[in-house]
Amino acid sequence: MEKQIAAIFSLLSFNYLMFKYWGGTWKVTLLALIGNYFFICILIKSYIGLPKFIEDFNVIFIFGICILGAYNLWRKNKAGTLTEYEKRRWILTRTFLTLFVLAVLVFALIFIFMEYIYGIYI
């Protein structure tokens, strides 16, 4: 029940912010559609569940959005047109990418040497 209430309030507050700061541009409209899609998926999932292919699509979709955002920041950084806010986002993005790569490496090393660490044979 808590998930549904949190998702409903998130959906309402997201739409309020989209309408309050409505720019009338296609980017704002696209952002509103994407946000509403994910909040509606959360609501449906908390009541009846989603098919596996929609969950897989959501993961691929979010991954694609993250790659496009990082590419956009990289392109602006290369051109030298980053604002101060975007510079902070670029530093944060590089930090998260570094942490993600380190986590994957640690997981891979644990998985490779699992039989020596835990005595588990795969």
Structure, briefly:
With 122 residues, this protein is mainly α. The chain contains 5 helices and no strands.
Features:
122 residues, mainly alpha, 84% helix, flat
Low-confidence stretches: none
Mean pLDDT: 76
Q: Percent of residues in beta strands?
A: under 5%
Total strands:
0
Helix tally equals 5
Rounded Rg = 20 Å
Shape: flat
Order of helices and strands: HHHHH
Described by strand count, sense and barrel closure, the largest sheet is: none
The rounded distance between the terminal residues' Cα atoms is: 40 Å
Class derived from helix and strand content: mainly alpha
Helix content: over 70%
Describe the structure.
Helix 1 packs antiparallel against helix 2 and helix 3 crosses helix 4 (about 85-110). The chain is built from five helices and no strands. By secondary structure, the chain is mostly helical.
